[in-house]
Specification:
Length: 577
């Protein structure tokens, strides 16, 4: 509830019995008397005569900040108590005023580790001068001092309805050297941080053309995140120097998981609220992503220039010393007696856009390439990838264009090996998260040469299979997946059992003998093919057959029949093109 009695009489506007209440809580109360000429409304004559008397007194104690702001339809990130005492007297052309604001028990519901802080500021207006003196205190840092003063002609501001941007300003922010451990209050993901920082900044010049002096420096010996996949920061040293209207970076360097990086350049302030960037970031094998499956490092040379709301990002990123390592279980050996887990529901396609300022209007021109091949390792595929892409457009509508070329990639299925002779992923600006596919592979299975062509997009791939000698598509797929034709699979359960036994043997071999080792291509299991329960076309009896590929031309074959007879052959393959 807001209650006030307001009346205009003569050349005075008077507000008495001024109270703000919520239930039984009194937010504040006071009295206001200011010069005001009612008959001048709608004319060119001044409404507030400069020689009129001013008398103001308002006081409020222990206001709950979050409760008060919610009452007015707003939210603030902190909670605590506020006390305000405002007094003013004199005339508009010779005003004497004082505001004393005390914020105590400042805390954040979102930051559980935040130690309550206290902030007090006193502002005085006397002899057309504004003087501000503030102090921020918290247990984890040294007290931060804030002082400022500037000319303030209240009568002139009312007459011009604006503050002159050529008004000179003097301000100072001082924080003695403190431990940077207080940062963990604002970044809960940090598990540990060790270092210190100090700040001594002076502001001069005018509102339109501020001038800075002083410096800030920070040292971080080490910083680690609770998430072990995030890179650790070490040996970080930064010194920022304020000079005139610019903030310079004479020293800003550190290591991310052993990869050094530096930032140089400056930020200028044509206006106090409109920074202009001219920064350059250089990095050498910096770790940008790490998980159980992925390790990615990049070299970078990127420049950021322009104003905050329309900056340009230009440069090069080179992927180096990176790999993707993933072993897939084809049968759930680790969970005997349980069915394999069902497929995960498809996730929503991420929207690559920054609709909010300041990134919304930033312009990008960044080339992304591989310095050395991005290695692909696993039990089902081995090889490398070469990236040649470009990030352009704006933050609102970024554009990704380019391709990823697969190099020396072999896809190893349980009973066949597919060599990717040509492989491209094409990224288009209109749908960057759905690349086009152009993959061609060749596999030699027994006496058949199979060629696979995959095209379309990642969301809707298409595949074409051909073979020499010619086989129907269904037979080709059966050969790739099981190493046998559909007719042989349907010949009896022994063939299926033999396939399952071979698959189980491969899995156990990887888990027991190759545990923790990087899978290599062309291993013994890649070369060996075993059939149990097949039918020998010469005798019509079931046999167990083992084929071992010595190289691409020589094949050693051994057959054992149900009667125990053995037959060994050596095949030398000659192919005509």
């Amino acid at each position: 509830m807001f209650e006030a009695v307001m009346q205009a009489k003569g050349q005075t506007l008077e507000i008495n019995k001024l109270e703000v209440m919520q239930g039984q809580s009194k937010y504040g109360g006071g009295y206001v008397s200011v010069p005001f000429v009612w008959e001048n409304v709608g004319t060119e004559r001044p409404l507030f005569p400069a020689d009129g008397k001013v008398l103001v007194g308002f006081k409020s104690e222990n206001i709950e900040i979050d409760k008060l702001t919610k009452d007015f339809g707003a939210e603030v990130p902190v909670a605590g108590l506020a006390s305000v005492n405002f007094e003013a007297d004199g005339t508009l052309e010779d005003l004497r005023a004082k505001v004393d604001l005390q914020l105590t028990g400042l805390r954040s519901e979102k930051l559980k580790d935040f130690t309550p802080a206290t902030f007090g500021v006193t502002a005085r207006i006397e002899n057309d001068q504004l003087v501000v003196d503030g102090r921020l205190q918290q247990a984890r840092i040294e007290p931060v001092q804030i002082t400022a003063n500037m000319p303030l002609d209240v009568a002139k501001i009312i007459e011009n309805k604006a503050l002159d941007e050529q008004t000179p300003v003097r301000a100072k922010v001082l924080m003695p050297r403190s431990s940077v451990n207080f940062v963990r209050q604002f970044v809960p993901a940090l598990a540990r941080i060790d270092g210190n920082m100090a700040l001594d900044v002076n502001v001069g010049g005018t509102i339109a053309n501020p001038s800075f002096s002083g410096a800030a420096d920070m040292t971080i010996n080490s910083a680690r995140f609770a998430n072990p996949t995030l890179p650790a920061l070490s040996n970080f040293n930064a010194r920022l120097v304020f000079d005139g209207d610019s903030l310079n970076f004479p020293q800003f360097r550190g290591d991310l998981a052993g990869g050094p990086f530096t930032l140089s350049g400056q930020i200028t302030f044509p206006k106090l609220t409109e920074p202009n960037f001219n920064l350059q970031l250089r990095a050498d094998a910096v770790l940008v992503a790490r998980s159980d499956d992925l390790t990615a490092r990049v070299d970078a040379d990127i420049r950021l220039t322009g104003p905050l709301n329309g900056a340009s990002v230009v440069g090069n990123v080179a992927i180096t010393n990176s790999q993707f390592l993933k072993n897939l279980d084809l049968i759930p050996i680790g969970v005997p007696g349980r069915p394999p887990p069902g497929p995960k529901p498809p996730s929503a396609k991420p929207d690559l856009s920054f609709p909010d300022p300041p990134l919304r209007d930033w312009k990008f021109d960044v080339a992304i390439k591989t310095k050395d091949p991005f290695m692909i390792r696993g039990n089902l595929a081995n090889g490398g990838a070469l990236v040649d892409m470009k990030l352009s457009g704006t933050g609102l509508e970024p554009r990704i264009d380019g391709s990823v070329r697969l190099q020396n990639v072999e896809a190893t299925l349980p009973f066949s090996r597919l060599e990717i002779t040509q492989g491209f992923l094409y990224f288009k600006p209109d749908d960057p998260m759905n690349p086009g596919l152009d993959l061609q592979g060749t596999s030699v299975i027994r006496d058949y040469t199979i060629r696979v062509y995959v095209y379309g997009t990642a969301d809707a791939p298409e595949a074409v299979f051909t073979s020499e000698p010619p086989l129907p598509q269904e037979e080709i797929i059966s050969l790739l997946a099981t190493g046998t034709t559909r007719e042989e699979l349907m010949g009896g359960g022994n063939v299926l059992a033999g396939r399952a036994l071979m698959l189980l043997g491969q899995q156990l071999y990887q888990k027991v003998f190759k545990k923790g080792q990087r899978t290599t291509t062309n291993s013994a299991f890649d070369r060996l093919d075993v059939d149990v329960g097949g039918v020998d076309p010469r005798t019509g009896q079931q046999t167990a057959t083992a084929r071992y590929r010595v190289n691409d031309k020589v094949l050693v074959i051994g057959d054992i029949g149900v009667q125990g007879d053995f037959r060994g052959t050596v095949k030398y393959l000659i192919r005509f093109r």
